[in-house]
Amino acid sequence: MSLRTHSLAAALAATATLALPAATGAAQLMTPATTQPATTTASLAAMLTAQNAAQGLDANHGVAFVRQHPGAQGTQVTRFDHTYKGVRIFGADTVVVTDDAGKALSVSVSERGQNLGKGAANRIGPSTSDFDVTPVLSTKAAIDAALRTLQAGAANAVHQTPPTAELIIYPIVKTERLATALTKSDADLNALDVRDVVESYELAYLVHTRMHVGKKPLFYDTVVSARDGHVLNQWSMLQTVTGVGNSQYNGVVAINTTLVKGSYQMIDASRGTGGTYGAMAITNANHGTSSGNVYSNATNTWGDGKQYIAGGSTTNANGQTAAVNALWGLMNTYDMLKGTLGWLSLDGHNTATYIAAHVNTAYDNAYYSDTCKCMFIGDGSSFYSLGSIDVIGHEMGHGVTAATSNLTYSGESGGLNESSSDINGEMVEAYARAGGTGPTIPASGNDWVMGKEISKTGTPLRFLFKPSKDGSSPDAWSTSLKRLDVHYSSGPNNRMYYFLAQGSNAAKTSDFYSKYLVKKPAAMTGIGSDKAYRIWFKAATTKFTASTNYADARAKVMLAAQELYGVNSKEHKAVQRAYAAINVGADIDE
Ligand SMILES: [Zn+2]
Description:
single chain; 590 residues; 8-stranded mixed sheet; 7-stranded mixed sheet; 11 helices; 22% strand; disordered N terminus; binds zinc ion
């Protein structure tokens, strides 16, 4: 069973006058021009489930509303999980874009439940005709099973939030070659030569554990069989910037604060509403593991512009500098998203977020936490303080992804999640460097490397234009990509984005050369950061699903380019070339 089935698109298109354009290569997308207005999530859900019979799905198949956010030009973007007997099917979801009249403009589906209740993939469970959703294990037993694997190396771990276990149906996925690629060598395989298929299903628990070992966060998601407690999959949910491994960086900057009862507080009342502090805020974790109190000061002059002195006060001028870094980064991230895209805060609903500075002691990382929907910044030890503009833009990018596609943070989807954050970090950097205002992403101003400023050696963490310069990330897609740490499997998509924005170089010795670009001109032409970002953001927030992989991303980014700039536009061709440059799909002449 293909994960990217045509069936829903075909079924919906059959009821509409406008059929799916055959040549887009985007299996999940369709444009049903005459679909009935669907103004509520309930009526959208009914529209989706009404297609089940046509796809051969029985009445046990359903959808469950997940979230909705505003899209461009009055559209609404609504996401549904797929369910079977009311149990969520992991990685199976649908995203629907509707216009202001409630009419569906596009539907993207990640179909992984197709064989539940029938077929060879349905074999797990006592019955072959009916997938049993009654767990053998209790939720407590599942949590214990997850903890046993984690605490082997962390006996002193303490829970930051109580662990949870959600009953799910977990598709066991394998990668298989298409018939046309059976004789190719492994090294010659292109991303479009293979597809993911569901081999079988397992009733399981998705266990969330958010712990600390000493002061270090240990955030994991674990998939545990609900039949016998064996661990099916596990990945870190610490959405960090590093892989395994006056503002300080921006001179004197203006920051927005609030005067409360004679003292200034690092609360920016002009950006965001609600959330924990009612507006954007910076707090002082003061070397702890929780966010701590909002920064306050007797005067409205903050920081000394110097690296935090280890062991020193976190509240004096030197200690405030990390907070200044954080607030300036947060302001610019917010303004870039709102100014260029009309996207409000991280979730599109303008919910305020916050950053906690000085987390842990000499902590060499920064991370986004899906529990508080906020960010933590360490002071660094082998790094300088981790609050550079690209790092903050990166972590806030995780917040946008979490509120939209929620790309699963392992395998190829995890690499795309990381890449989307790197892209966001670079675009925030470009915007901030040009003054942090206006409706477009500047053509230049960012350095296309992640974390150069926080590096004591001057060597960046990651190179978007040539990821292999870090010694760990590949420059192109291969079948082994999905087994890498997500901070490395992001590499090819980062390179794709660089080429899309800036173009490539035809000289074989150049860092900007790709051997996969074989059409004319030999150096592909970039379309600039502003267009590249609009295309990427549209695809990522309105078309990607949680299990989108590189091949699926190509199809959806190409479709976003078509929708924004036209079929066969230079932007559309540039996306195709940029993905071809990383061994995802074929190259074309410009
Ligand atoms: Zn990250």
